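Pilot study result, target chain (120 residues):
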Amino acid sequence: MAGKLCVSITNAKNDADRATVGFVVANAAVGSSQETMVFLSTEAVRLAVKGYADDIHEEGFAPLRDLLSNFVNGGGKIFVCSPCFKKRGLDEKSLVEGATIVGGAKVVEFLSSGAPCISY
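Predicted structure:
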């Protein structure tokens, strides 16, 4: 469906390049006036914790903390996989601005309108 995009990210510090590129693409989509949702699952849920992304800076790209902030400030939504977050014992009170803990049904709802999804 034109006008919507999902970017699914499964990596964090374990593959900072993929995590960074996922947010670069998400920012490009928001900048192109697309309703954009980033879905963080598995290891990527750590990116939703305040301070975690502060030291991630892949050569040739903006720091990940800036990409996260720009994405949210541009109107992007960050959905965080609830079971993945809980499995890692993370604290919901430490979520970055714009992040929401969700179950799979919320992602399915977003995608069911025909929104394409790209994964990193």
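One observation from the pilot: DSSP finds four helices and five strands in the chain. A full batch analysis is planned for the follow-on phase.
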